[in-house]
Amino acid sequence: MFSRLSHIINILLLVGICATVPGRPALAAERVYDNELRRWLTPEEMSHAEEFLSEEEALKVMFPNSQRIRKDVLRLSQDQKQLVESRIGWRFPEEAFEVYIGETGAAVDGYAIIQNTIGKHKPMTYMVGVDNKGRVSNVELLVFRESRGSEVGTKRFNYQFEGKTVLDPIRINKDIINISGATMSVRSMSAGVKRVTVLIDEFYLKPIGLGSDTVAGRRSARGFFGSIFGD
After folding, report:
1. pTM for the full predicted model
2. What gap in Å lies between CA 33 and CA 38, rounded to an integer?
3. What is the Rg, in whole angstroms, of the alpha carbon atoms belonging to the chain?
4. Phi, psi dihedrals of residue 40, rounded to the nearest 5°
């Protein structure tokens, strides 16, 4: 009996230690230590959630002129998932994505996917729109759950994603400008935008001959003829 009680006490002590040491997971309650601020985040900071747009509002922004919007569920096999991961350069847990497709008549106007990626401590939710040529058409922040860094939701920031394709790095300090104090959020959103361009390219544009292989081939041909004729 005494040995069992000692074992329980040791477990409780271990839980207490893990909940108060920076870098250790909080077992008794959700506590996060911010290395930049050098302190524990307050309950108010941990529960912070700022909503910018609803899903319906974001879809209207993505497809302002489409006659209809339909939803497709893209389910990835393990091989397909590994292919996307190899193209974007990082792994992700999701195996399925809801893809919204804007259509007018028989033509596809574009695509949009909601992303939930970790900012500094918690996930942020945003929608990425891609036109029917594989170019990013818009990025809109829906929900931001950090206490700092919501500047990633401003048009001044996300405007720089517009026009990007799978052939662009879409990486901080490459072709995406950082925001001081929001580096993790910028990295997260950039990675999410890159993933969307690859998903649309691989599973919607390539099957109809509009994917990155075709685009790269056209660019290569223009570069070749340009070098001959001086264009």
Report:
1. 0.75
2. 7
3. 22
4. -75, 145
